[in-house]
Design goal:
Layout lengths: L14 H15 L8 E7 L2 E8 L12 H17 L5 E12 L6 E11 L4 E10 L4 E15 L9
Antiparallel strand pairs: 1-2, 2-4, 3-6, 4-5, 5-6
Amino acid sequence: MAKIATPPDSPEPSPGATHWRGLEALYATAPVNDLFDSRLEIDGDGRSTIHFTVEERHFHAAGAAHGTLYFKMLDDAAFYAANTLVSDRFLLTTAFNLHFTKPIRAGRARAEGRWVSGRRRVLVAESRIVDAQGEEVGRGTGTFMRSHIALSSLDGYGK
């Protein structure tokens, strides 16, 4: 007699994973992100990665990415790393410090965000951009605070 294997029930996603997917959806629906070929990936509390493509349309006159691209990707990576730890409110950037270490040319890159400290009033997170060759091209540190905006009230978060 043949045995029939019954697959185990698939586990329900953890509350954390549900929140992370909501943040990824929120990123994807933000109108500013229509300007960039980018995707947010969250795989744990206090961590985020933004995969993006640097295009010539992002260049300044000397043929490398303009600082606005560095700021956008560094701020977003740090912001989302911090917001993984706050599941009810949208965070606001209150300060951001960045350091350019190398010009970034056209191609794939990633911004890696990591929460550093704080959970109640102010959260601190850092981020870095790594180019297609695996070299760090910029880094930043930001402070973020809880806003009065409920994440659940934002289009995209629950999708």
